[in-house]
Amino acid sequence: MVDRLPKKWSGHSQSAWPLVLLLVVAVAVPAACVLWFMTEAMRNEQLAVRGRLTAVYQGQLDSLRRRLDDYWRDKETTLASVDPDRPGAEIFAELVRSRVADSVIVYDASGQVAYPVDPSPDISDQPSGSPEWSRAWALEYREQDHQAAADAYQTLAGESSDAHTAARALRARARCLVKTGQKPAAVEILTEELAGANYRDATDPRGNFILPDAQLRALELLAEPAADEYQRILKALVARLEDYGDPLLPAGQRRFLMQQLSEIAPQCPEFPTLQAEVLAADYLESRRTNGFVVPPSGGGEKEGAARDRLKAALRTGHLRPSGLDDVWELVPADKPLAVVALFNQQRIFREMESLIESGLAVPDVTVKLLARDAGPSEDASFLAGPAGQYLPDWQLALWLDDPDPFAASADSRSAMYLYSGVVVVLAMVALAGLVARYVGGQIRVTRLRNDLIATVSHELKTPLSSIRALIDTLLEGRYHDEEQHREYLQLAAKENERLSRLIDNFLAFSRMERNKQTFELAEVEVEKIVAAAVSAVREKFDACGGRLQVDVPAGLPDIIGDADALTTVLVDLLDNAHKYTPGEKRVVLQASAEGNVVRIEVQDNGVGLSRRAAKKVFDRFYQVDQSLARQTGGCGLGLSIVQFIVTAHAGSVSVSSQPGRGSTFTVTLPACEAVAANGNERTG
Q1: 479-492: per-residue pLDDT in tens?
Q2: N or C, where is the chain less crowded by C-beta within 10 Å?
């Protein structure tokens, strides 16, 4: 790694700029002319193609719009054809089960809701005004004497001539028996006595039928879905809930029982009208809040005003927001007080996309239905327009699958112009690229030569100057005694050793670059190369008072390699550890065997490396300290030579380091057994 000295370009590199500018001009000017002529020649043709394709796509949108109008017109016709004399519950069930709408609100001739209508579900019993009822209710709730209360309710049921009162008393008796732990007796009352023909139409004070509630309570008490009795009761209750005939269950009770039955009975079939019931109830609640529900007959002026307001609000004949999130309503324009159809937005998207897909006759386009308040799309559509008279709050948008179909639709003559221009431009660019590559190569060679000259000059000048100064001092006799004379000679020898090492590194680098480096491979004992390396650097550590610890266990397997080259590896690593460990030097050299490899580590307590420096430390000419005033010498070739030698021996070298905590260099080499095994596999 060389010092980053200021560099000036040579004459060759300076003359590259005019050549580069000439190449740019030679390519840019003809290319611009070719592109301009080509663009002008194709513009009229592309505009004509665009106009023709736009007309085709607009016709496709018009066709899809008519298709959507036909679909919703059929819906409106079906809704308008509803017989107003039929019961509202039957109309509701028929329209929902036939998938005409997700839910419907049915009105009668007076403008009142015919279905769904009902009070909120509440199956609790309240005491009547009779003394017998009051006494039984007091026994159950105040005195908590459930058995006495059950007997009192039994007496009331037997003495009452009214089916509603008797049924309420029997249900109350069953409730008390459950509280006393007599569940079988309670189930018998709920499923046998209350199932009698005389109690089929019995209701509680709120108008809810008693028998369906009793059947649900019996299922909760049985809690055995596999039992025959459970299945019989379940089947009867499901049939009652799916029956929209007379006598009609209140919608709230039906909805409540459906929801409860779906929760407690895992074998209960899915109710096709449950979601419609829930949606209709939510819709009516929102309308009631806004004053759009006609009060019961007899309301006088208030009833008439509400009916007129409702007619005006419902006379639309197209889809519009219902007041609920993601729910739309459709009302026949000719019969605003007949039926209101409700549609979930997801269903609208799903069915409209199916219609669009089946009616799309133009290839390579995508058409989608979008709500007007959906906001801008990430990719603007090519064409957009209203989705039809029934969908005024929606629009149809068309995207092109090919972002530029007009150029592809141009005739062969325009394509020939395009291809010819592209070929000419590419040829010029290729020629300019070849010239630029050649010039760039010459510039890089010049830079490398300058870098090498600067590195060699800087690294060789220092030891040569030191040796010359020491020799001149000795020749002139400017020393006090033999000890100083010997000290000067040692300094000269040290600088000579440094100079020799630099020259050896340059020669090794030259052989590496020319692939001329050869190694004499033989079985080598790890202990010997470690001893040779330690011997080479021991004096250096002793001179500065550093500590070099060697930990090489006996019995390590031999390795195949060049003993001198491997010794050079360890010497360079130890010298590197000595060089970059200021102050008290503590270096550990240890070796170990792991599996089929031998691992040699050199660990120091030096300055360490940053993560970025650790990634580059094995690069040629790289030095961590790149300043001119750095304290350590060298040209940045030592570690790159280490990596080259280790790699040539089928091994690897790595470094683990943190700034200020030292570094650990690890050399991994295959043992003789592993080398022999690999050789046998290759020969086999």
Answers
A1: 777 777 777 677 77
A2: C
Helices 146-159, 163-179: inter-axial angle, 10-degree rounding: 160
- φ and ψ of 223, to 5 deg: 55, 30
Task: Count, in order, helices (H) and strands (E) of the chain.
Answer: 21, 15
Burial 173-195, CB ≥16 within 10 A → b, else e: bbbbbbeeebeeebbebbbebbb
In what helix (H) or strand (E) does residue 343 lie, and over which residues does it extend? strand 339-344
DSSP 209: B
- Rounded to whole angstroms, the Cα distance separating 372 from 59 reads 21
Q: How far is CA 513 from CA 441, 508, 567, 637, 640, in A?
A: 17, 9, 21, 12, 12
Q: What is the SS3 string spanning 133-189?
A: HHHHHHHHHCCCCHHHHHHHHHHHHHHCCCHHHHHHHHHHHHHHHHHCCCHHHHHHH
pLDDT tens column, 614-645: 777 777 666 665 444 344 555 566 777 788 88
What 3-state class would DSSP assign to 36? helix
CA-based end-to-end distance of the chain: 44
Is 76 within 8 Å of 341 (Cβ atoms)?
no
Query: How many whole angstroms separate alpha carbon 222 and alpha carbon 178?
Result: 12
Beta carbons of 394 and 330 less than 8 angstroms apart: no
Phi, psi of 272 (to 5 degrees): -70, -20
What is the value of pTM for the model shown?
0.52
